[in-house]
Amino acid sequence: MSKQTPMMEQYLRIKAQYEDAFLFFRLGDFYELFLEDAIKAAKELEITLTSRGKGAEEDRIPMCGVPYHSAEQYIVQLIKKGYKVAICEQTEDPQQAKGVVKREVVQVITPGTVMEGNIIEEKDNNYLVSITPLAEDRFGIAAVDMTTGEFKVTAIDGLEGLYHEVAVYKPKELVIPSTFSEDMQQHLQKNLGVTLSFEDGQAVDNTLFHKIEEEALVKTCARLLNYLKKTTKRSLDHLQPAIYYMANEYMGVDVHSKRNLELVETLREKKKQGSLLWVLDETETAMGGRHLKQWIERPLVSKDLIEKRLSLVETLLDRFFERESLREQLNGVYDLERLSGKVAFGNVNGRDMIQLKRSLQQVPQIFETAAKLGNGYADELIGQGENCEGLRELLETSLQEEPPLSITEGNIIKDGYNQELDKYRDAMRNGKTWIAGLEQQERAETGIKSLKIGFNKVFGYYIEVTKANIPHLPEGRYERKQTLSNAERYITEELKEKETLILEAEEKSVKLEYELFMEIREKVKAYIRPLQKLASVISTLDVLQSFAEVAEKNHYVKPKVVYNGEVKITDGRHPVVEKMIDEGDYVSNDIHLDHEQEMLLITGPNMAGKSTYMRQLALISIMAQVGSFVPASAATLPVFDQIFTRIGAADDLAQGQSTFMVEMLETKHAVSRATKNSLILLDEIGRGTSTYDGMALAQAIIEYIHHEIGAKTLFSTHYHELTSLANDLPRLKNVHVSAIEEDGKVVFLHKVIDGAADRSYGIYVAELAELPPKLISRAKTILHDFENGDKHSIVKEVDESHQAFEEVSAAVEETVIDTSTQQAHDMEQLTLFGTIDKENEEESSKKKLSSKEKTIVDEIQKLNLLHITPIQAIQVLDELQRKLRK
Ligand SMILES: Nc1ncnc2c1ncn2[C@@H]1O[C@H](COP(=O)(O)OP(=O)(O)OP(=O)(O)O)[C@@H](O)[C@H]1O
């Protein structure tokens, strides 16, 4: 440090406080990065690394920089990569500074707190989550979305529960105590892929936590808030009071199941298209879009609430005209939540305010349309929302319709809003009219028609006369200001006076406009809470109209929600698959489950639609519990408390667990947590191990669920042996997805029918997948052997098959040679695979054979050795010999 310049000393002192962030150090018009930061940033941002200082290379300081006016794009790049950026500004005027200019970090931007640059998709949330240990194996979780102000808190038991709950928020950053063990930190990072931040501050802000009773949970919220204060260093007025919820207020759907069921994004490509969210999203506002996503992530378990939502969807579906008006009105509403956030955060501009105004102008009409529906829930919603009329009036009277992006260049405030501003504007406008008049007057007096009065930023106002006309100018009055190639520019006493007046008025009006804008912003701040309430009402209406729209488009029905555990779906469809295939091609299916029939054992060929059938039930149940209509012609559904699935490919292999282990862990998760009110979907459990192990496990799992849990369960399997379980387990029923064979081809009917399937058609599917023909043919041979009994010796047989194959082939050859040496000689081209290389030779050699011999040769030729087993080959050989001997 001692060798450093004072500025570098200052840098190092500040950097020491922000070790985990890139320090953007303001130097004039640039943000500079030094030392390690510079080396790393140059690489990440692909900018040039230079160095600072004199002397030998090793004494120089690595450095890189970005211009301050385009810094945002670089900051965004770093944040997207999971880094943090500390912005260090000059906090005094360099002209006034004695010694090194004072500098200070004014904000730390992190993945969980970023408000800048459109990093966050408008229909997405960006949650920052904190974890606090409450007691042994019990954790507090608090989550804030800085962009919308939403603040939630809950307590969770067990590590597994913790991961599942945190994962619901998909946070990019986690705030934890520094006392968390290394192990725990690594675990969190690995499982959740987040940036970790530490916060141990004790300060507690009671205004935001007054609804939270448990002391320990208040600390959880405080951890988050303290971190936010430290990093953002500005007003957090838009944060809403923390709301406590319990995980069991919602249907429990663990992370794996959410992924497998593709609720908000597809499993492989992580895209919205192809997910349930994609099908259900006909929202008109960004807020509605976020709301819908949250609803899908947390389906309800309260029958009353579900029915409330369903009733309004029904009304909206029936009232086409009102729905259409509502959609149009909602379309004019901007993102009130994010706008409120910007107001509080202080980065709102004139255009944002106009968006706010336009949104508020829609509100009375939205409420009016909703009131016309005559629906109890719609009335309740209207009652909760304030229409913020005062704010609308303020914005209508104060702001110009098309303000510029910048808030420091004027043209924001309307005429008539402020007297003083009007006065300056008058001066400016009058001045300009006066100047136009002066131009006419000067032209008349001098007789120079091309004389004009202009303005530029450097010289101010001037009278311009072309060189040719200069002799016509009267002496004395004109003072030369600027010479151009073919003209001279002058000023007169009179013009100078007016110029001062106009410029002064302009300067003052811009300054005043800025002050007025700040004042308006403060006034808007007072409306943040009502705006947030309004946002919540509008988003709810938006999601429900979206459900009605989707229901109409896709012919969904209102589900009947019951408490007796009955599932009765008539003509159910998979909401996503039916949209992905040609219209009308989806084969609908019924499902019936109740106390006497709790489990379905589903068999059927590969590709028949077993998983689709299972997912269909899960998705229909989730849709009903978020308040949506469902794809069926009639549906009675219970309120499931949890859904467990083990379907599809295991996606945790990257985390070092085997497919089978993942399968077993997920099964454990299901059987240890499910209740009789849960839904369990298990797809081919046990296939990842040896047949007998797998079958034994599958049977034990089915029996356990049947005897111990009583949850509604769909279990698909290829182990046909399991179908006999229906004889012993009274609440288990066999169903199968049907397929028929037509002209040697399998036709999947996708229809679920009572009873067990007879065969699998797995090889047919392999053929569809275009595996090599030789391989397919061999598989058919092996299958045939299996089906004809000797299952236990099959492995040995497979090993020996090649050898046997060759022996049989040799025997076939010998037989032919024995029959006639001459014939054998003529037939030397005859290959084992029944082909003759030269067709002509084949014909001529056949001519020399007797008709009996010819038949035999033909038979040998026709034989497809790849399609017969060694045993069959010997049988054929035996047959041929007998024919020859006859
Ligand atoms: N009811 C249906 N109507 C129309 N097409 C369907 C239906 N069910 C499934 N399909 C189509 O069949 C394909 C295969 O379905 P699915 O994956 O459910 O089969 P599966 O029986 O689970 O197969 P496997 O045993 O190989 O896992 C689906 O991708 C879908 O395109």
Automatic annotation (TrEMBL):
Q: Which residues bind ATP?
A: G604, P605, N606, M607, A608, G609, K610, S611
Keyword annotations of the record: ATP-binding, DNA damage, DNA repair, DNA-binding, Nucleotide-binding
Keyword Phosphoprotein among record annotations: no
Q: Where are the transmembrane segments?
A: none
> What family does this belong to?
Belongs to the DNA mismatch repair MutS family.
Q: Which residues form the DNA mismatch repair proteins mutS family domain?
A: 678-694
Xref: PROSITE patterns = DNA_MISMATCH_REPAIR_2
Q: What is this protein called?
A: DNA mismatch repair protein MutS
Tell me the domain of life: Bacteria
